[in-house]
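Good morning C.,

I know you're traveling, so I'll keep this short. The sequence:
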Amino acid sequence: MKNRVRVLAGISCLLLLSFGAFAQEDLDAKWKQHMEMAMQALKEQRANEAVLAFQAAHAIAEKFGAQDPRLGQTLFFLGQYYYTQNRFSEAGMLIRRSLSITEFNRGPNDPEVARILDTLASMYINEGSASEAEPLLKRALSVRETAFGPDNPDVDASINRLASLYDSQRRYEEVEPLLQRSLEMREKAVGEDHPLVAVALNNLGVLYHKQGKLDEAEALMKRAWTMREKNFGLQHMEVDNSLSSLAALYRDQERYEEAERLLMLSMSIRDNLLGTQHPMDPLLAAGLRELAVVRMTQGKYAASQPLLERSLLIEENFVGKTHPNLASTLINLARVHLNQQQYDQAEQLLNRALQIQENSLGRQNSGLAPALNTLAEVFRQTGRTAEATSLDARVDGLGGN
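The tokens, ready to paste straight into the viewer:
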């Protein structure tokens, strides 16, 4: 009798274990199904369905245990999605929890840990919290160096992320050794004529431009330009990048004719590669503005006008007719009309720019000064001295940003 009881008890335990295993398998299948549904919905831009599927996957994943890798994966993707929906606090909380779970399962020096650190750092940077991003990027770099060694492409990517952060903070002395290391790594890994080396050369040249090392900057930019034309031909966006960088250097050196020539080449590339299929691409507007400003500096106002008019049309199509970013183009176009003695057109453009800026900045912001000063000049040239004097006084009374 006792033996029968023992056998029955053993069978019961096996049945319970089997049922638990089947239940776990069923939960795992449902979790995978919801995750796949969420990914497919994201791919097809069905945001509401994506979040519902992610949330369902999250609810199931919580049942796997507090340190289960599937929970960490779910939290990471759900956190990323929340961030795209401007749910910053929830996103950060989920991704930090994902980081903790991943460290528990894989160890603190696993490459997946570095990927999550990069994501979290990117969120902090986009929210204006660069000081919180820096230690995350430094640790991600250290993790990758430990996992892959010092010369791995993933290490190079980490170096450039950290350099980009320092550059945004104008910490140029700290940027320089990072970009130099990146250049040396790429030359060693892929050879001196590879497109990746050209990118590193141009990046370092742009940095030297910011540091005032103009001769060094020009030499690096020209070398990058030559390599890119050799690798890609004359009509390529990588070549355009070199032309724009070098043109900016020449502009700041007041070498306006050389800058104009390069910007014209740049615009020919953008028009050929973007203009037909993407005539409203913001990159076209940026090139048009840069070329127009260089021409204005040389007094070529009539030649600047169609460039700014086309740029304005593209910008309005992209951001709408009342966006603050339109103000600088409106003011420059007004200056073009002013210098051609087309005062009515200049005044209309400046009034529009002021209305946009006052709505976005307020009436006392110092950012209104360029538009007010230009409008005062319109009034002076048209004999409206009292109105010009009134605007001068308003400029003097403007506050800070």
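Safe travels,
E.
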